[in-house]
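Input/output pair, single chain:
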Amino acid sequence: MSTAALTPDLQAPTGNLDITVSRAELLRELTAAQSVVERKTTIPILSNFLFEVSDEGVLTITATDLDQSLKTSCPARVKKSGACTVPARKLYDYIKLLPEGDISIKLQDNHWVQIRAGRSNTKMVGMARANFPAVPEFPGVGVFKINAANLRNMISKTIFAISNEESRYTLNGALLVLKAESMAMVATDGHRLAHIEKTGENMEVSGEKKTLIPRKALAELMSLLNNSDAETLEFADDDQTLFFRIGGRVLTSRKLTGQFPNYEAVLPRDNTKFVIVRSEDLMGSIQRVAQFADERSGAIKIRLEQNELKLSAQSTDAGESEDIIETPYNYDPLVVGFNSSYLVDFLKATGNTGEVRLEFKDAQSAGQMRPEDGNEEVKYRYILMPMRI
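Output:
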């Protein structure tokens, strides 16, 4: 944790803030900001929202856990500008329980904050504004515009393949690759890799720009994109920080350091044996058979023979199970093992509709799965290392 990040912003207003806001508008912004607040923190000020009000009639709300910050705002009728900090969780839970209407917020002595709404009158114990860490400002240069729907789709297709192992920190995020006419995202945990590329984009990028985005930031971005009707977002970065601006909200995230692995080297080149099946059929078969897989490995066996795909699993505790899907297949027979939950993750990400293509080389080589949807602009593939069974 850097000490610089805790340096307070001494130029901030500190007057005795006194404002009135609409409950609906305040609650909407608190909902966006509260997920960034640390639940269990050793630094008490990080459990608070920072409220800042200028004379322009805007309440700015900031939340941070030092790794991430979110800054958002809502209109306010200002009697007195100023700043204060309020316990985030307590305030959010309380505002949710108030009826619709106006809320007045007033800073009192000793950092207490009074909140009045109708006949409700509450005082919360705040903390000194001066203790709240400075949050990086959105850069004025080097800003990229990204299509919001495309980015949301890319995150949903890759985030599940990010590694959970803290020790492999360069795999704790997804790599965003921007080029002049395309953008791509890739994530891997060493056992599987999800890669999606969208062509037909118009990016002001010379060469390519690669950025590693932490999982936590991707989850936060996904939530912001799901709750915004903005068609584009702005993305920028500096040496330490990533910045995303969606509508009036700015998310910052500390960068992951280190080199993302050379994923292009593991993309299969000669998986010439393939089979096409309905996603729904494959999902049903996997889920049934996986009930009987070894609990630790989750391994199931895929056997491809003349015009049929056979899935099976067995374990000494549970018994054994087999499912057959009839489908055109005219190559040499093949038997390969995979982690069933990894297969399910992919099918869930594709929406479990339409058809998927499973491509293989042999039992020892990585398998590749992709949706058979004929979409030329969006290429999505999922590479899976086989298991010994």
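Helices lie at 23-34, 88-97, 148-158, 215-226, 279-290, 340-349. Residues 7-14 have pLDDT under 50 and may be disordered.
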